[in-house]
Amino acid sequence: MVDPAAEKLLAPTGWMRPDPAAYPSGGDWAEQYLEPLADVLGDKVRFGATVTGVSRSGRDRIVDADREAQPFVVHVAYADGREERIFARAVIDASGTWTTPSPAGASGLPALGEKAATGRITYRVPDLKDPTVRARYAGRRTAVIGSGASAFTALASLAELAKADDGAGTKAVWILRRGISGATFGGGEADQLPARGALGLAAKAAVGDGHTDAVTGFRTEAVERDSDGRLVLVGEDGRRLDVVDEVIVLTGFRPELSFLSEVRLNLDERPQAPVELAPLIDPNVHSCGTVYPHGHRELAHPEQGIHLVGMKSYGRAPTFLAMTGYEQVRSVVAALAGDGEAADRVELTLPETGVCGGAGLFDATEAQQAGGGCCAAPESQLVQLAAPARAAATAEEAPVQGCCGA
Fold it and tell me: H or E stretch including 323?
């Protein structure tokens, strides 16, 4: 989780490298690494700043004439009301996707009533160490929508809360859009990132121990309220689930592209990733372990000098790893510096997930996937699974190396 170039900047300051055997939360990562790095970089880091647009100076998206000779102009708005224009020969967009989570609605758009119920819906894994957040979920019935590492973390956290003295009556309902298959819980002990594999085992234990009910084949169409203000999830097939107090939506993220509308990008129509990268990460086909290390060539666009890197480069694909972003940036910066040999060199070996292939048939049950057949969407059903033989990781052990997906 520590980039070698960043470590060279931090080492002379007396910074202590975090324990490499530990698995940080997002807060740990910021406190122990990102904030000290920002301090070292000094005034090169602008806080309270939002990029509102990127363009070629004096050229909108449509103008060809002398375009490549013009610098980029980055429009920045600050929290105190100031505005700034920064001119640059290159732009690296590493803004991620954190501010644009995907909705509960299975169509990619918010479900009916979803926006009106925002007071009872969150799109983040809740921090149950925070007393206020903990009280929100303790003793309540919570629906968790999603099937990636973030959903696993939420389910494990709620299961731990259910076992605590202050969590009696806590119950989770896990909403999956597909059926249960061999890959549902990730790679387990076969995952080369053990903590990532442990998250899936923790989710499996939450179901097997009775702290979570799994509802499969359910695609949310509407969020309604009962007479007491509790929420009722309604499926596309008209099925209505039992009431819940809270909903945690962890269906992935998507890139914010509006401020790049005046530059010429070449993005795939499915994951909204650069077209050369998209075939490697399309979740319809691939798992995380099938992506080879890549750099400036796969991240290039028709607008020379602009690169989307990090989670932003993966678009809607859910399998990004921070170490992938470090390698992307190393290659891009080497290319900008004119070192073609370094830019094309591979300096990373990615760990396998322990899960082969990708999402498989969208509507297929486990039996259909095994036989290669495909028919109608699986009927919604309540699933009980046996607990794994070995103990699973707790939510506090959840690493920030994975990303949730639908």
Answer: helix 322-336
